[in-house]
Amino acid sequence: MSTVTRKPAARLDPSDFLDIDALLSDEEKLIRDTVRGYVRDRVLPGIETWFDDGVFPKEVATELGELGLLGMHLEGYGCAGASAVSYGLACLELEAGDSGFRSFVSVQGSLAMFPIWKYGSEEQKQEWLPKMARGEAIGCFGLTEPDFGSDPAGMRATAKKRGPDWVLNGNKLWITNGGIADLAVVWARSEDGIRGFIVPRGTKGFTTRDIHRKISLRASVTSELILEDCALPEAALLPGVTGLKGPLSCLNEARFGIVWGSMGAARACYESALDYAKTRVQFGKPIAGFQLTQRKLVEMLLEIEKGTLLALHLGRMKDEGRLAPQHVSVGKLNNVRAALEIAREARGVLGANGITLEYPVIRHMNNLESVVTYEGTSEIHTLAIGEAITGIPAYR
Q1: How many Cβ atoms are within 10 Å of 53's Cβ, its own excluded?
Q2: Residue 164 CA: distances (Å) to CA of 147, 161, 202
Q3: How far apart are CA 265 and CA 96, in angstroms?
Q4: Cα–Cα dist 104/140, whole Å
Q5: How far is it, in rounded angstroms, from Cα 118 to Cα 74?
Q6: Buried b / exposed e across 311-342, counting CB within 10 Å, b at 16+?
Q7: Is 161:195 a contact under the CB 8 Å cutoff?
Q8: Cβ–Cβ < 8 Å for 266, 342
């Protein structure tokens, strides 16, 4: 008679109830733990002040570069060449600190570095990517315009040939990192179609204007890019792509990070609510002992575990080359929506204390109101999935 050796049951960790940690490789865990430690030691001690003051600490760019987080999913040119799952885990931990930090890394790596890496000339890659990977040069991504967000095909920014140069005119709005960027990857309409250009700071005719009085993403720089007869040499043109597939492919890279990052914000809210509920005494016992509070905490836990498993599955698909843009739409639509609901529920558990920056919940809740909109609204992702399952586009 054979003897079956049973492994000991997994410990029921309130922050990893389904033992998702066991699905990660040692390298993935190391990257996750390194970023988590950085957030704990460097981000959390200052984030209340940065958020309250409405500033992003630009000096962290080189720190993030030293950690290998900038363009970490790209190969060569000083980039780490990490897996999609490792990049996702980094985004999760960064956004558990604050969406502003995940946004910075996402814009730098996926929206500014990726188009140069994917569509740039060898000279452009050699000039910019190593500096950007080190955090010595900061990039931004100019696609959205004042009147064209979800419909970028209607952009009004133009790029016209004038002798050997290109001349750009137009405005780009809601641009993360714009005011601190050393270069902007700007998309504009030419006679041949939509083209991408590298516009260095200091180029004549190129200016930026920061957007203030934000209630969301306050620890992040959001700007307008202004192009007025901005003359660029032919060498500024990204030669490898024409049309919307260029900027849309970049957005898909960035959305993948949001799938993971939103679960980091959700986890931070859940853990804050759980800790608070176990110590806040009402009617003679901690409110964690009441059925209604336990139901709220359990619902939060369920959505975080499901959302994290979804992110991990999409990450494995991306690493295997099987991930379609519509798959990313499923992840962003589901996970950001769930994270926002978790933040709101956690705010309720904390009661009046939930509206202060002493706790992270209201900060994450406000940030998620931006995350649910940028890189494709919930409505646009719904229609992208709808078209995929029906074969009928319903955008117009």
Answers
A1: 11
A2: 31, 7, 20
A3: 5
A4: 9
A5: 9
A6: bbebbeebbeeebebebbbbbbbbbbbbbbbb
A7: no
A8: yes
In contact, 298 and 312? CB cutoff 8 Å: no
Residue 267: closest CA among 296, 295, 308: 308
Query: Which tokens in the block code for residue 115?
Result: 């188009």
* CA–CA dist 86, 32 (Å, integer): 7
Tokens describing residue 112? 């500014």
| 149 DSSP 8-state letter | S
Nearest Cα to 358, choosing from 14, 15, 52?
Answer: 52
- Candidates 46, 100, 146; CA nearest to 368 is 100
User: How many Å apart are CA 340 and CA 336, to the nearest integer?
Assistant: 6
**Which two three-digit tokens encode residue 231?**
């003359």
Any catalytic annotation for residue 375?
yes
Q: Give every CB contact of residue 263 below 8 A, 6+ residues apart in sequence.
A: 92, 95, 304, 307, 308, 311, 335, 339
pLDDT tens, 306-324?
A: 999 999 999 999 999 999 9
Q: Which of 145, 228, 375, 387 is catalytic?
A: 375
Q: Rounded to an integer, what distance in angstroms lies between the CA atom of residue 66 and that of residue 70?
A: 9
Q: 147 is written with which tokens?
A: 């009147």
In the chain, which residue ranges form alpha helices assigned H by DSSP? 26-38, 44-53, 60-66, 84-97, 99-106, 114-119, 122-134, 245-279, 291-319, 325-350, 361-371, 378-390
CA 359, CA 365: separation in Å to the nearest integer?
11
Residue 190, beta-bridge partner list = 193
d(C-alpha 92, C-alpha 257), whole Å? 8
Question: How much is the average pLDDT of 1-12?
Answer: 66
Inter-residue contact 327 to 317 (CB < 8 Å): yes
**Per-residue tokens: 238:** 């990204």
In order, the DSSP letters of 190-225 are ETTEEEEEEEETT-TTEEEEE--S-SSSTTS-EEEE
pLDDT, tens only, 164-205? 999 999 999 999 999 999 999 999 999 999 999 999 999 999
